[in-house]
Amino acid sequence: MVFGGGGAAFAYFTSTGSGTGSATVGQAATWDVTQTSTTGTIYPGSGASTIVFNVKNISNGDQSYATSAVAVNSSGGDITVNGTPVSGCQASWFTASVSNDAGAGTNIAAGGSASVTVSVSMPSNATTNQDACEGQSPDVTLTVN
């Protein structure tokens, strides 16, 4: 037998191709905002309640935490307590402000959180009797975005 030298020859075609696929982008989730503590007592013209909130990122990715805002809840001009209006205790008699916001202007990682401290007071700016507010615990809402 005689074998041919050299090597084997192969024939082939060339071509091109393309295809498409898709990736999935997650969505932002709402922040989980919970009150963790309250200290202090409010009186007309003196004292304040300090409320500490925990703001947690419950999404699966980083979220931008830009700002926060706080307000004393009201219905028809009166404060609410557990969602129920307190007749004669005007929300305009209260001042609420964010006194410390550790997370504002940052990105919070998935599962991470930041602390927000809020102050609520009752400046002595009313010229009427404020007895309707005695012993009440006004609802306060912290909104973050």
Describe the 3D structure.
This protein has 145 residues and is mainly beta. It has a single domain, classed as Immunoglobulin-like, CATH 2.60.40. It is built from no helices and 11 strands. The strands form 4 sheets. Strands 1-2-10-8 form a 4-stranded antiparallel beta sheet, with no helix packed on it. A hairpin with a 2-residue loop joins strand 5 and strand 6. The termini are far apart.
Q: Which value, in Å, is the CA radius of gyration?
A: 31 Å
Structural class by SSE content = mainly beta
- Stated plainly, the CATH topology is called Immunoglobulin-like
CATH class: Mainly Beta
> Major β-sheet, in short?
4 strands, antiparallel
Low-confidence stretches: none
Assign the CATH architecture: Sandwich
Overall pLDDT level: 91
Task: Work out the helix count.
Answer: 0
Shape: rod-shaped
Number of strands: 11
Helix content: under 10%
Give the strand content: 35-45%
Cα separation of the termini: 85 Å
Tally of structural domains: 1
Across the major sheet, the strand order is 1-2-10-8
The arrangement of helices and strands along the chain is EEEEEEEEEEE
